Amino acid sequence: MPGLATSPRLRVAPIPVKGFRFPHRGVQGVAAHPPDVPGDPDDTHREAVPVTVVDGEEETVLEVRPGRNLREVLREYGFEVYGSVSRLANCGGRGLCGTCGVRLEDGPEPDHWHDRAAERWGYPRLSCRVAVDGPMTVELVEKVVWGQLRPGE
Q: Where would you tag: which of 68, 72, 75, 121 has the fewest CB atoms within 10 A of its CB?
């Protein structure tokens, strides 16, 4: 009797992996909506909401479907949420590294531990932990690596 793994009748369907990257295996998944962020990514019957992005002196208004993840929306529209180093070394939107910070006006109440600390101490909020559920203004903050000297200092 052939073993289960070698049985010709057994077919194993690949399981879609979302939110994790396994570059050593060649499998990549994209976290379109992290599981612990409120909102419904399949909520297509609601109208798009305006998200105003402030990048230095420029303001851009995006029309975004409610329930989308803010980090993914910003990256989709070409806005950089990471600094030069964290662009290469980050957690991929899982709320672990703290490098995708933005400042929010009129955004949802914080529900992630880092965002509650950010509100208390004035740090930027993690864009990967924010679901777009209504109109909001997002300010992209300057990314500085700890210990890095800025030009002219």
A: 121
Q: How far is CA 45 from CA 41, 42, 65, 137, in A?
A: 11, 9, 9, 23
**Would you say 43 and 64 are in contact if contact means Cβ atoms under 8 Å apart?**
no
β-strands 49-55, 58-64: how paired? antiparallel
90 CB neighbour count, 10 Å cutoff? 19
Strands (E), 25-145: 27-28, 49-55, 58-64, 68-69, 101-105, 125-126, 131-132, 136-140
In a structure prediction context, what are the per-residue pLDDT tens digits for the chain, which is 153 residues long? 454 455 455 444 444 444 444 444 433 333 334 333 444 555 456 689 999 999 989 999 999 999 999 999 999 999 988 887 777 788 888 888 888 889 988 777 767 676 677 777 777 888 998 999 999 999 998 766 544 445 555
Q: Residue 77: give the domain boundaries.
A: 32-140
- Domain assignment present for 99: yes
CATH number at residue 45: 3.10.20.30
Residue 119: count other Cβ atoms within 10 Å of its Cβ.
13
**Cα distances (Å, whole numbers) of residue 123 to 103, 117, 150:** 8, 7, 20
